[in-house]
Amino acid sequence: MINAVSILEIRDLEVRRGGVRVLDIPGFEVLDGEFLSLIGPNGAGKSTLLLVLACLLPRYRGSLSFRGASVMEGNGLMGYRRKISMVFQEPLLFDGTVESNVASGLRLHGVNRSNIGRIVGECMERFGIGNLKGRHARKLSGGEAQRTSLARAFAVGPEVIFLDEPFSSLDPPTREGLMEDLQRILRETKTTAVMATHDRVEALRLSSRMAIMKDGRIVQIGDPGDVMNRPQDEFVASFVGVETVLSGKIVGSGAGTVTVQVPGGKIESVGVGQVGDPVLCCIRPELVTLSTGSPTESASARNVLPGRIVKVIPMGLFYKVNIDCGFPLTAYVTASSVENLTLAEGSAVCSSFKATAVHLIRK
Amino acid sequence: MDLILEGIKQAISLLFTLDPEVLGITWLSLAVSGAATGISLIFGMSVGTTVALTEFPGKRFVISLINTGMGLPPVVVGLFVSIFLWRNGPLGFMEILYTPTAIVLAQAIIATPIVMGITLAAIQHLPRNLRLQILALGATRLQMVWMLMKEAKLPLLAAVMAGFGGVISEVGASIMVGGNIKGYTRVLTTATVMETGKGNFDIAIALGIILLLLAFAINSLLTAIQQQQRPR
Lengths: 363, 232
Prior knowledge:
The complex is a heterodimer. By secondary structure, chain A is an alpha+beta fold. Chain A contains 10 helices and 20 strands. In chain A, the strands form 4 sheets. Chain A has a 6-stranded mixed β-sheet with strand order 6-7-8-3-9-10, sandwiched between helices. In chain A, strands 13-12-11-14-20 form a 5-stranded antiparallel β-sheet. Chain A has a 5-stranded antiparallel β-sheet with strand order 15-19-16-17-18. In chain A, a hairpin with a 3-residue loop joins strand 16 and strand 17. In chain A, helix 3 crosses helix 4. By secondary structure, chain B is an all-alpha fold. Chain B has a single domain, classed as Orthogonal Bundle (MetI-like fold). In chain B, 77% of the residues lie in helices and 0% in strands. The chains are: A alpha+beta, B mainly alpha. At the A-B interface, strand 6 and helix 3 of A face helix 6 and helix 7 of B.
């Protein structure tokens, strides 16, 4: 349950490392109960921001507040640190059994022994590692180790949990299972989570909000669907998987739609604008439909463009098809479509997409 | 060949008859080197850990100094400790030259950089994020250091062994600051040197064997602690 109340808030943040500015965030907040993902390429500052939020890295400038109260180095810091928890990419387990690892945070908090036993037992069950309690931490598989690390972080009953690429060293089936469990546990415990990741699929799947980072700044933050479909600039567009970004100029404007002239063709898009405005047209590959029949078949789409296939690239669960329809266009199609339509390099194909599938970025 | 066999025979009889002089020497060796190692652990581990965990200008230089100290020649230590403790020396007023205390002091100076260097390397070798992970679990700074030391238990016990091994087998400094006084500052190594010089190979061999057994016993004990609870 997400309340629109902020639990963590940052103002005028600047972090330097070796004299170089690595984070520059004028304002940022984490909402109570949300799952916020920080995504961006390596070196964007995601992990640094997590460490600053956890108050594990000194700020050069700026304030951090938790439920309205300022968090500063010194006396109040321990109180804050005991309300949060963190999981890193590496499980970082201690020398000892799974049970002693899960108990470690509680022991540091000074919780009494009988309560520790009960909480640890519950936590291990929750993460499906109850059967491993006597196992030594060094004898665990990658997935089991990360489950132990998560259980240890949850055992202390944090109000906010910070996750730094928690799934990136796991194989896909293990990752899948753990993500599912994490999502359920976060819901059950009503814990707020902030996760750094470079995997947009992971972020989309778990997040209620998503922030895109680049060079120590947050370039866009919002609802995942919004960020995915309405990127603010070319960088965000390419990072969230928009394959086609075309630069053009508005040549016609009608009732809620515009016509954009791009090199090699025209695109109909929803939106408003003045004739002559320069824009970028973003088209998500999964919103492009391919057909080999006559163009009239896909009449509901405003953009129907005959063209030729340049390349068909297998991507595992789907195929990526590069088309030349005057301008380069990319579509994702299923394996069965590739087979049924006999899509091959050089073959003629008709691409169509709706005017609503085009997102315009004003330049 | 006879010499060696004769020596070993004599050694065994000395060992089994529990010769009071030999026992005294053994006990003093153990006490002096044990105390020196204890002191070196206090200084070596605390400074080693602090240097490993803090960033400051000139850190590399300090680390190379500590590493150089790990190879400190005992005779050089003996020389400087002697000068300091000499009657007219800066610490002459303490009047501890040629006492067991002087040997403890010299041996502690030898063992401290060894313990410090290994501690430093052990703590630095831990994963970078482990510190942050411990703090994020709500540890105070002291709890964090304690947990890091527990994680580095293996190399830290190796540091204890290296420190103790370095001083129990050391002879130069002990002779220089202790003086090899019979029944007072004579330890296993200094006694071995003396008996060999006198041509009493049997006693020298006996003392040598005791020294080896002692080192073996102490290290076995430490190894047992080190290897306990290791996952199989």
